[in-house]
Amino acid sequence: MEVAVVHRIIEQHAATRGETLAIVCGQEAATYRELNVRANGMARHFMQIGLRRGGHATVRLAHGIDLAAVLLAVLKAGASYTWIAGSGCIRSVAISGQYTEESTPAHVVDLTPALGEPLRSGPNLPVLTRATDTATVVGGLSGGSPMLVPHETLAALRRPAVAARPQLWDGDPSTFDLWTGLLSGATLSVESAPALINAA
């Protein structure tokens, strides 16, 4: 049986239980449908500025609903991501070719205008990603060896039994807690990330 890629599983949630809350962050909330619509729009934006399958995005953004949409959008575009937590005023993505441990030229884009655009419904993008493609790169920011995590590893975090109760997303730099909740169809509750998370 073929392992589904991360964004396809979440698209299925958006189609079958779209009005279920995906993320609650203070007074803000997003349903699975809203999260998917927002990520579709952002993915098209990323593809217009050159993000493609096999590409990599280094995302600097505070954790919350916007971050979830941006990371989902990167995956929908076929690329992988590294998340570096930023303050509310740091909202950028550096787009480059395939991830390497060496510094590579990157196109830095301010996310603020795109995140301010209104939600527009649109079809899901074609899924060109394979389960073995890298979804996220964890570590490597403080001198350690980076870990390239494929879609199939994240998809294995899916836990059907957790959907009935709220799950905490505490801003772990691996984002495994984010995907465990969303892949399982749970409602994530956001708490502030520790001040030193992702510190270089």
List the helices and strands and how they pair.
Layout: H1 6-16, E1 21-25, E2 28-31, H2 32-48, E3 56-60, H3 65-76, E4 80-84, E5 92-96, E6 107-110, H4 112-115, E7 134-138, E8 147-150, H5 151-155, E9 167-169, H6 176-183, E10 188-190
Parallel strand pairs: 1-10, 3-4, 9-10
Antiparallel strand pairs: 1-2, 3-5, 5-6, 7-8
CA radius of gyration: 15 Å
The N- and C-terminal alpha carbons lie at a distance of: 40 Å
Low-pLDDT sequence parts = 193-200
Query: Helical proportion?
Result: 25-40%
Q: Helix and strand succession?
A: HEEHEHEEEHEEHEHE
Give the overall average pLDDT. Answer: 85
- Our estimate of the beta-strand percent is 15-25%
Structural class: alpha/beta
Secondary structure tally, helices:
6
Strand order of the largest sheet: 2-1-10-9
Q: In CATH terms, what is the fold-level topology? A: Rossmann fold
Number of domains: 1
The total count of strands amounts to 10
CATH architecture: 3-Layer(aba) Sandwich
The quaternary structure here is single chain
- Name the shape in a single word: globular
CATH class (first level) name: Alpha Beta
Largest sheet geometry = 4 strands, mixed
User: CATH superfamily, please?
Assistant: ANL, N-terminal domain
